[in-house]
Amino acid sequence: MPRAYALRVASAKLEVVAARHPEALVLAADSVVAVGRRILPKAEREEEARACLGLLSGRRHKVLGGVAIAAKGCLRTRLVETTVRFKRLESREVDAYIGSGEWQGKAGGYAIQGRAATFVSFLSGSYSNVVGLPLFETAVVLRSIGFEVRSS
Q1: Which of 24, 34, 89, 129 sits a CA distance of 20 to 30 A from 69?
Q2: Which portions of the chain are predicted below pLDDT 70?
Q3: Is residue 103 part of a domain?
Q4: pTM, full prediction
Q5: What is the pLDDT of residues 79-97, one digit of tens each?
Q6: From CA 16, how far away is CA 84, in angstroms rounded?
Q7: What is the distance between the alpha carbons of residues 142 and 120, in angstroms, rounded to a whole number?
Q8: CA 2 to CA 134: how far, in whole Å?
Q9: The CATH number of the domain where 128 resides is what?
Q10: 30-39 pLDDT per residue, tens
Q11: Domain assignment of residue 150, yes or no
C-alpha cells in the first residue's frame, strides 16, 4: 500500500537520525507518487521519467507525504494525501520537460514547483506536500508537542 509505504519510509529515516541525536527535534519525511496501488519511482533515468509522465498523462494520481517527528519524548507521524490531475501531455511537452532535467530524482518524475506546474489541471489538498513537505500539517504536529511555529 502506498500510504503505509510513505509512513514507513519517513519513520525509518527518523529512527536512524533520532538514535544518533536523542535530545534533538528530528523531522523526517518522504513523498510517494501513486497511481492506484502502484508507486512510481524517483526517476533517475530518462526512460523512467518518460514512463512516469506517460502514466500520469490525462489522469489523477495521489501524492502521499509521510511525516515523522520526534521531540521532547514524543513521536508523532502524519500522512498527508494530495490528489493531482495532469492534462493529457503532448509528446513535444514531454520531450521539452525531459530536456530540462528538472525530473531527475523526483518522485513520479516531475517537480510541480517548476515547469511541470503547467501540466496540472486539478489539485486537491496540500500544494506544499507535492513540493516535498506538507508545511501546514507539519506545523500542526509541531504545535501539538509544544513547539512555537511562526509564519514569518
Answers
A1: 34
A2: none
A3: yes
A4: 0.93
A5: 999 999 999 999 999 999 9
A6: 31
A7: 30
A8: 17
A9: 3.90.950.10
A10: 999 999 999 9
A11: no
